[in-house]
Protein backbone atom coordinates (compact mmCIF):
# COMPACT_ATOMS: atom_id res chain seq x y z
CA UNK A 1 0.00 0.00 0.00
CA UNK A 2 1.04 3.57 -0.66
CA UNK A 3 -0.58 5.22 2.33
CA UNK A 4 -4.31 4.52 2.50
CA UNK A 5 -5.02 5.64 -1.05
CA UNK A 6 -3.12 3.44 -3.49
CA UNK A 7 -2.25 -0.21 -3.83
CA UNK A 8 0.68 -1.33 -5.96
CA UNK A 9 0.35 -4.82 -7.42
CA UNK A 10 4.09 -5.45 -7.06
CA UNK A 11 7.07 -3.53 -5.84
CA UNK A 12 10.25 -5.12 -7.15
CA UNK A 13 13.46 -4.07 -5.43
CA UNK A 14 16.79 -5.04 -6.87
CA UNK A 15 20.39 -4.10 -6.38
CA UNK A 16 22.85 -3.46 -9.17
CA UNK A 17 26.33 -1.97 -9.20
CA UNK A 18 24.80 1.51 -8.67
CA UNK A 19 22.70 0.53 -5.67
CA UNK A 20 19.05 -0.33 -5.16
CA UNK A 21 16.34 0.33 -7.77
CA UNK A 22 12.56 0.21 -7.25
CA UNK A 23 10.03 -0.93 -9.87
CA UNK A 24 6.35 -0.29 -9.10
CA UNK A 25 4.22 -2.64 -11.23
CA UNK A 26 0.57 -2.26 -12.18
CA UNK A 27 -1.06 -5.42 -13.54
CA UNK A 28 -4.19 -4.85 -15.58
CA UNK A 29 -6.80 -7.27 -16.88
CA UNK A 30 -5.29 -9.12 -19.86
CA UNK A 31 -8.74 -9.38 -21.43
CA UNK A 32 -9.77 -5.75 -20.96
CA UNK A 33 -9.93 -3.10 -23.67
CA UNK A 34 -6.18 -3.13 -24.34
CA UNK A 35 -6.15 -1.24 -27.63
CA UNK A 36 -8.63 0.53 -29.87
CA UNK A 37 -9.28 -0.50 -33.47
CA UNK A 38 -7.01 2.29 -34.71
CA UNK A 39 -4.10 0.99 -32.57
CA UNK A 40 -4.22 3.58 -29.80
CA UNK A 41 -4.05 2.36 -26.21
CA UNK A 42 -7.43 1.37 -24.80
CA UNK A 43 -9.09 2.03 -21.47
CA UNK A 44 -7.19 -0.74 -19.70
CA UNK A 45 -3.76 0.73 -20.43
CA UNK A 46 -4.92 4.31 -19.89
CA UNK A 47 -6.28 3.33 -16.46
CA UNK A 48 -2.94 1.73 -15.58
CA UNK A 49 -0.99 4.79 -16.75
CA UNK A 50 -3.26 7.04 -14.66
CA UNK A 51 -2.57 4.88 -11.61
CA UNK A 52 1.17 5.18 -12.19
CA UNK A 53 0.84 8.98 -12.47
CA UNK A 54 -1.06 8.95 -9.15
CA UNK A 55 1.65 6.85 -7.50
CA UNK A 56 4.34 9.19 -8.74
CA UNK A 57 2.55 12.22 -7.28
CA UNK A 58 1.97 10.37 -4.01
CA UNK A 59 5.65 9.43 -3.72
CA UNK A 60 6.69 13.06 -4.28
CA UNK A 61 4.54 14.22 -1.38
CA UNK A 62 4.64 11.22 0.96
CA UNK A 63 7.91 9.33 0.57
CA UNK A 64 8.45 9.43 4.34
CA UNK A 65 5.35 7.23 4.72
CA UNK A 66 6.83 4.61 2.38
CA UNK A 67 10.09 4.86 4.29
CA UNK A 68 8.17 4.00 7.49
CA UNK A 69 6.75 0.94 5.74
CA UNK A 70 10.26 -0.16 4.76
CA UNK A 71 11.36 0.33 8.38
CA UNK A 72 8.41 -1.73 9.64
CA UNK A 73 9.26 -4.77 7.51
CA UNK A 74 13.05 -4.72 7.56
CA UNK A 75 15.20 -7.06 9.57
CA UNK A 76 15.43 -5.44 13.02
CA UNK A 77 19.15 -6.25 13.20
CA UNK A 78 19.99 -4.38 9.98
CA UNK A 79 19.97 -0.78 8.83
CA UNK A 80 18.12 0.23 5.70
CA UNK A 81 20.45 1.14 2.84
CA UNK A 82 20.61 4.80 1.86
CA UNK A 83 18.44 4.27 -1.23
CA UNK A 84 15.46 3.36 1.00
CA UNK A 85 15.72 6.46 3.18
CA UNK A 86 15.47 9.32 0.68
CA UNK A 87 13.47 9.76 -2.51
CA UNK A 88 15.73 9.56 -5.55
CA UNK A 89 13.49 9.62 -8.63
CA UNK A 90 16.31 8.23 -10.76
CA UNK A 91 15.90 4.94 -8.83
CA UNK A 92 12.10 4.80 -9.18
CA UNK A 93 10.63 3.01 -12.20
CA UNK A 94 7.09 2.05 -13.20
CA UNK A 95 5.58 -0.61 -15.42
CA UNK A 96 2.06 -1.28 -16.63
CA UNK A 97 1.43 -4.85 -17.75
CA UNK A 98 -1.71 -5.75 -19.72
CA UNK A 99 -2.95 -7.60 -22.76
CA UNK A 100 -1.28 -10.00 -25.11
CA UNK A 101 1.01 -9.50 -28.09
CA UNK A 102 -1.83 -10.03 -30.54
CA UNK A 103 -3.59 -6.98 -29.00
CA UNK A 104 -0.86 -4.75 -30.44
CA UNK A 105 -0.27 -3.49 -33.97
CA UNK A 106 2.35 -1.21 -35.52
CA UNK A 107 0.66 2.00 -34.28
CA UNK A 108 0.32 0.56 -30.78
CA UNK A 109 4.03 -0.24 -30.64
CA UNK A 110 4.85 3.34 -31.73
CA UNK A 111 2.56 4.71 -28.99
CA UNK A 112 4.12 2.34 -26.48
CA UNK A 113 7.57 3.63 -27.47
CA UNK A 114 6.39 7.23 -27.08
CA UNK A 115 5.07 6.55 -23.56
CA UNK A 116 8.24 4.67 -22.64
CA UNK A 117 10.40 7.58 -23.77
CA UNK A 118 8.31 10.49 -22.47
CA UNK A 119 7.10 9.05 -19.19
CA UNK A 120 9.90 6.54 -18.68
CA UNK A 121 7.07 4.02 -18.38
CA UNK A 122 7.38 0.62 -20.01
CA UNK A 123 4.01 -0.70 -21.16
CA UNK A 124 4.35 -4.42 -21.37
CA UNK A 125 2.15 -7.06 -22.89
CA UNK A 126 1.20 -9.89 -20.63
CA UNK A 127 1.69 -13.33 -22.09
CA UNK A 128 -0.67 -15.86 -20.60
CA UNK A 129 0.73 -19.32 -19.98
CA UNK A 130 -1.59 -22.11 -19.06
CA UNK A 131 -0.20 -25.06 -17.18
CA UNK A 132 -2.03 -28.31 -17.76
CA UNK A 133 -1.71 -30.86 -15.01
Describe what this molecule looks like in 3D.
Helices cover 37% and strands 18% of the residues. It has 133 residues and is an alpha/beta fold. Strands 1-2-3-4 form a four-stranded mixed β-sheet. Helix 3 (106-119) links the parallel strand 3 and strand 4 (123-124). The radius of gyration is 17 Å and the shape is elongated. The protein starts with 9 loop residues before the first strand and ends in a 9-residue tail after the last strand. Mean pLDDT is 83; it is low at 126-133.
Set down the secondary structure blueprint.
Blueprint: E1 10-16, E2 19-27, H1 43-73, H2 82-85, E3 92-97, H3 106-119, E4 123-124
Gyration radius from CA atoms, angstroms: 17 Å
Q: What is the number of helices?
A: 3
What's the oligomerization state? single chain
Give, in order, the helices and strands: EEHHEHE
Could you tell me the mean pLDDT? 83
Number of strands: 4
**Poorly predicted residue ranges:** 126-133
The proportion of residues in beta strands is 15-25%
Span of the ends, CA to CA: 34 Å
Structural class: alpha/beta
**What sort of overall outline do the alpha carbons produce when their principal axes are compared?**
elongated
Q: Trace the largest sheet across and list its strands.
A: 1-2-3-4
Helix content: 25-40%
Largest sheet: 4 strands, mixed
Quick overview of this protein structure:
With 133 residues, the protein is of the alpha/beta class.
List keywords for this structure.
133 residues, alpha/beta, 4-stranded mixed β-sheet, 4 strands, 37% helix, elongated
